[in-house]
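Hi V.,

Quick status before I head out on leave. The structure for the redesign project is tokenized and pasted below; the design run finished overnight.
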């Protein structure tokens, strides 16, 4: 009888290793553990044994039954947790590789420019993205109803200030940080201010409602246009190579006087003319100029004593040109196939 039980136990153990789901478990319980099951048949036979054997075998049979039922409940909880013997964890297998992200291309170029300016003694500053109309426009010499405000399609935010004016906007450029920096640090001052900006654009391959700029500001005694040109030439060489040239042509911005745009020789054709530069040989990347005396005054700085220059790079545009990216919307798409290329 003992041998019969041992054989039956081995049979049950081997069937247990094949169980994959609760159905399989139920079948096995039915076949071996139910009242009419094969294990019970053996238990029924115990009463016919002699007293000695009854005690000896009875104990043995009970231990076997307990072992088997505890294995059954292990199997049940493993299945309920979603793992069966079929996908049990083998800790000796090599580990799965952890998927690493990558630094966004705009962040990479931003850091490259930050390093350059940091090495020239510039601070790197931050400002709020939800900005007051005053800092975004008025303090920068945009008169309240002046058409220059319409150069920048603005998201107005429907929150009123203490005087009942709807005074907040999503900043349309990083220039408001110029005023904040002047108020906080006074003159002399050297700072760059990278950050996210917003415009109410109909988006396409070249326009996005959310984009990055990098503002620069230098104020001191006797700061001239020559300093501005020297700094911008250096940035161009750093970004696009030592043969890069700078071209500046007059352009109106209310917060600078004189104002200018800034173009670099096309990095792709070296100025010969190609598809990227639309056959002009130049790439327009920035706006700049000498800080307007009224703007210095808004920042609490005396324009009789100090002068300064400011510039603003379109950071996304700079990155697009550097890597030959043809759609600005890719930057905010969160598409890993795009982001992993950098
Ligand atoms: N803020 C301007 C823009 O967004 C760029 C600029 C910055 C121009 C600083 C001149 C000086 O278009």
């Amino acid at each position: 009888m003992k041998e019969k039980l041992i054989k039956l136990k081995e049979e049950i153990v081997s069937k247990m290793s094949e169980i994959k789901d609760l159905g399989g478990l139920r079948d096995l319980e039915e076949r071996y553990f139910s009242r009419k099951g094969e294990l019970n048949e053996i238990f029924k036979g115990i009463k016919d044994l002699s007293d000695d054997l009854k005690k000896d075998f009875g104990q043995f049979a009970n231990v076997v039954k307990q072992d088997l039922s505890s294995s059954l409940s292990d199997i049940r909880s493993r299945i309920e947790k979603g793992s069966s013997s079929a996908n049990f964890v083998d800790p000796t297998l090599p580990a799965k590789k952890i998927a690493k992200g990558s630094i966004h291309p705009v962040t990479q170029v931003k850091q490259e420019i930050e390093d350059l300016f940091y090495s020239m003694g510039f601070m790197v500053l931050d400002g709020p993205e939800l900005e007051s109309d005053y800092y975004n426009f008025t303090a920068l010499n945009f008169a309240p109803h002046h058409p220059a405000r319409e150069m920048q399609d603005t998201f107005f935010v429907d929150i009123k200030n203490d005087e009942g004016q709807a005074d907040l906007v999503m900043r349309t450029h990083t220039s408001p940080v110029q005023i904040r920096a002047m108020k906080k640090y006074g003159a002399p001052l050297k700072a760059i201010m990278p950050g996210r900006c917003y415009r109410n654009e109909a988006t396409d391959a070249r326009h996005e409602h959310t984009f990055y700029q990098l503002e620069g500001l230098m104020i001191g005694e006797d700061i001239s246009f020559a300093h501005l040109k020297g700094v911008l030439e250096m940035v161009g060489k750093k970004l696009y190579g030592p043969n890069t040239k700078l071209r500046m042509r007059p352009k109106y911005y209310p917060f600078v006087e004189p104002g200018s745009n800034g173009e670099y020789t096309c990095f792709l054709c070296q100025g010969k003319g190609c598809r990227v530069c639309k056959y002009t040989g130049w790439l327009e990347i920035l706006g700049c100029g000498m800080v307007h005396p009224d703007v210095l005054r808004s920042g609490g700085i005396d324009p009789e004593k100090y002068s300064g220059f400011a510039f603003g790079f379109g950071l996304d545009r700079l990155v697009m040109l550097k890597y030959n990216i043809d759609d600005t919307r890719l930057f905010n798409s969160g598409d890993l196939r795009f982001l992993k290329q950098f």
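Above is the designed sequence. The pocket of phenylalanine is lined by residues 173, 175, 215, 253, 256, 259, 287-289, 310-312 (CB under 6 Å).

G. will cover questions while I'm gone.

Best,
W.
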